[in-house]
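Final report, closing paragraph on structural work. Over the funding period we assembled a curated collection of sequence-structure pairs, and we close with a single example.
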Amino acid sequence: MARRDPRFSMPLAWYWVLLLAAAATLAGADDPYRYFDWTVTYGPINPLGTTQQGILINGQFPGPRIDCVTNDNLIVNVVNNLDEPFLITWNGIKQRKNSWQDGVAGTNCPIPPGANYTYKFQAKDQIGTFTYFPSVALHRSAGGFGALNVYQRPAIPVPYPAPDGDFTLLVGDWYLAGHDQLRQTLDSGAPLPFPDALLVNGMPSDTFVGDQGKTYLFRVSNVGMKTSINFRIQGHSLRLAEVEGTHPVQNVYDSLDVHVGQSVAFLVTLDQPPMDYAVVASTRFSLDSTSALTSVGTLHYSSATSRAPGPLPAGPPETANWSMNQARSFRWNLTASAARPNPQGSFHYGTIQTSRTLVFASSPPVVVAGQNRYAVNGISFVVPDTPLKLVDTYNIANVIGWDSVPPRPDGGAPQLGTPVVRLNLHEFVEVVFQNTESEMQSWHLDGYDFWAVGYGNGQWTENERPNYNLVDAQARHTVQVYPNGWSAILVSLDNQGMWNLRSANWDRQYLGQQLYLRVWTPEQSFSNEYSIPTNAILCGRAAEYAH
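Its predicted structure, as stored:
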């Protein structure tokens, strides 16, 4: 039995309809197309009982869920009826050879008020749980986000029986203040206040309905601004089934930490007496641990007439080491197929020689040019009026600071800049994220998955490498970096383009904790990268050019 809101659940019948439809289309030569028309507006919402201005897509908060199948072509026409420019990014979709559709300020001109832009991209060789959200002007704090679920092709098995249904949960911290007020707060040099609430699918709580004895897939994404969460279900185990588009070893957990920008999916079997059980999400690692926020929903057995006795399930210890050990327990399933028929483990990443090491250290708020900013290796990113992808394409001078961010922290005075690191197509790179603060952080890389090979406390050194997991480290697109700690990733740069490497903590991203990687080869070929779309919006210093 499916729960009431079709945007966030998929019963088994519709699950098979989607796959059978895909099979019929795939019998032809071309991958299928799915078309969406979205209108973005302001509108009243009241998730906390007080009416506030939200950002709606087709009148919905959160926005419409996209369900598609591996290799589907998605055509999304976005009409911007806000009073300021707007962009959507597709978090975790790799945009193979197509950073033109990434939807961030370094690749796309924002959609002007009253105008539209049609995104055209493919869920190429991907499956899993993803999201989309607004990428400029702190719009994501007002809504405009939604789920994007990519299902497997019928011919490609997943390493578990088909669930009896699935539920999509968009969990995130929430502010009563509007995005313009939050923006003014950051621009004034003040930090964001502690969030007012934790929402699930745009509500303080939600209900999920299932039948006793059946198994359901829960897809949980942290769509918040800056706060980690822990997720648990009273009396039920969570069997990890997917992490950001790849299959992990199916370990069983009592609860799971999900950090900002991350997504996980897990299987839950309704194997308890038919009652109502608490579904709990709570914030983690806030600087004031006494201010934790909690959302309590319900897992309702269809034949239940009473609520399960006992207290709410307690969260895990509020310690980084507990969470870090859980992160280390996430293991890539080497024998499972992902979106393609070959096993995930057929790519032996641990045997590849790295071409270079980049160590990116974030900084606490520092005054740069009279304003409180965040920085990476001393460089605080300033968004130019011309997207970097257009600057690079048209060879526009004096915009990009090529390789201006040091490859390691050098202790230089903080400064403003527009750094782009030049990397060669097919390099294999080690990246270390260093956190010297008491705040939990997340880092996201557009265009790629990477292997999270190591987590640790204190200052990273080369002596940490023998402790890396070079066999079955979890692949993902967003990695957490624990307070006063470090995280190391390995990434195979096989996707040409201009790619945003950013803090997923959106206040830090807004104030400069980001940069871009330009992955390039002089061999110009459509097999490496698509050309500029004919409908690309041209702005800033690129406005005078033709497509």
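The radius of gyration is 22 Å. The chain has five helices and 35 strands. We thank the funder for supporting this effort.
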